[in-house]
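agent> step 3/5: call structure_predict on target 'N-acetylmuramoyl-L-alanine amidase' (Nibricoccus aquaticus).
agent> reason: downstream docking stage needs a structural representation; sequence fetched in step 2, passing through unchanged.
tool.input:
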Amino acid sequence: MFKHGLVFLMAAASGVVADVSANPVRSSPTRPATVIDQPKPVPAEKEETKAAAPVARKSAVKYVEIAEVSALHGLELSWPEPQRRLELTNAEHRIEIEVGSRNMRVDGLRVFLGDPARLVQGKAQVSQVDAERLFMGLLAPVAMGKGRELKVVAIDPGHGGPDTGTENKALGLREKIFALDVSLRLKRVLEAKGYRVVMTRETDIDVGKGARAIIANQAGADVFVSVHFNSVLNDTKTRGAEVFTFAPQFQRSTNAWGPGQPDDTEALPAPVNRFDALSVACAHAIHGALLKSLKAEDRGQKVGHWAVLRALNCPGVLIEAGFLSNEAEGKLIATPEYRRQIAEAIAEGLVAYGAKVAGAEKK
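tool.output (status=ok):
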């Protein structure tokens, strides 16, 4: 099953598999402006590291042995803590996985599995979806994107117009303003590097979530980057950066694992799910560049059912570059210099991603 799944996935990435964009595009549930198509972010110190009991799992989860994943990618499997914590390593990568948890570390970066790792008869396993989507994107982007050249970047400044996004009213900070500012800075950086950039908005206007994907698709975008800032109601401690991709078919969103949250697993694929592995590769490159540049707290690489990503005909990521609700981080975001750092870090990640999927060494 695992090998057959990989064949299908690689065929989909190369455009051999039939287009699924005819599937109906469903809107994400509506919610207050302070949260973007997802439940409120869980404060870092309260975030679930173990698998919570599902409210209503909609489909059985198929698992594969981690040893098989390790062999496929040329990694050595070892157990620093027998039956509790394992490592996959080679000259390029070091992955740490804790049994019973969705948390893992990939080359030092926090990445969430879609389903918890488990131990069955002494053998560690991950879900087949994670093996085929997450691990392929993290470890074999060349195989998934060989021949793809990154030329056109769609930049989506979150919110706009009457939709202010998150706010810190005490400091007078509004997400829509900073998202647009960072996006325009990113546009200039990428254009200077020779990329063609399409913007979903360049002024303070409201653009429908579905319309943003249409703009990117009509422009023939090779990748879509949605820029946002975060907030948690009545919480001034949580801070840091996190990067999302669209949740794979048959997996719930990261936040849906929180206590009391319903299972939001989707049985039908969204158009953007054709590019799951490439979206993962892009998110990982941007995630690493952001943390390296900003020295921000690592909130992780996650998945969600984001309306702006759903209908894309290219890989897509959604970036939460910091928390306006955290006074110290909010004040940093309010400075032009910090927003310049954010834009340049995103650009650095995109360049690294482009080099990876093209199979070229970063110069």
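agent> step 4/5: record observation. The first strand starts at residue 63 and ends at 65.
agent> proceeding.
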